[in-house]
Amino acid sequence: MRAVIAPEPGGPEALQLVELPDPVPGDGEVVIDVRATALNRADLLQRRGFYPPPPGASDVLGLECSGVISAIGPNATWAIGDEVCALLSGGGYADKVLVPSGQVMPVPAGVSLREAAALPEVACTVWSNVFQIAALQPGQTLLVHGGAGGIGTMAIQLAHALGARVVTTAGTPEKLAICASLGADVVINYRTEDFAAIVKDLGGADVIVDNMGAKYLAKNVSALAPDGRLVVIGLQGGVSAELNLGALLAKRGSLFTTSLRSRSTAAKSAICTSVVEHVWPLIAQGKVRPIVHAAYSLDDVRTAHEVLEASSHVGKVLLLT
Prior knowledge:
By secondary structure, this protein is an alpha/beta fold. About 30% of the residues lie in helices and about 25% in strands.
């Protein structure tokens, strides 16, 4: 099978399309013939050498995919020919991928097999962090940074569909307009406006989902409502910052830091089950949809990485096999 690896850390030029042996399923595993995979910022970090796969995971890049099951191992709960999408620990940038059967999900009604590749990582990330960990409730306020990205576009839609007020940041008028069209009630240009001051004037955010880390830590704490929950899921703005515990304590605030990729197979399988139960019906009803910016062939993987790295996209960037 063809697969994309990054043998040495570097820029997009470090990516290599190589031939690897086809995977063989073991107990509780399936092989998916990949139709599409989607890029994530974690892929950029892995390519640069900063985010190695968990022990036992494939060195092939790619944390999600869609496709058709072509082989099943003992005790796997799927059938050959099933059209599915899957949450991966790695291996998605390939013609075939080996997946624990619990991390495989049916393609939601109303979504094409190709588009389904844009769903697993963002749906599982948003559902597990915003709704399971931070327990966002109807009528509460969610602040999501980077609203035009993959995580952001899913968070806006899900929170809006489930009755929350959504505030989001983005860096251009065009991206802000798209966020509003997806259900954001308040949009903030982080380049020209002080998001913390605006959110405080709104009464604060009950939940903040943040991909920036250190750069936004103090402002995020300032923007929290009483009993607010800050969930840090990325470190694009750095890894180290001073935390004013007094400010957090005064609001009875909570700070969570989470990662999806490093969780156990059982934990990821439980999240996938919950996503199918709670998120897939909203997609079938047309209340939530995958947002796809562009699709590239596996041969053009370097171009796809350049697009993601430039942050010129809205939603997800796909690779087609």
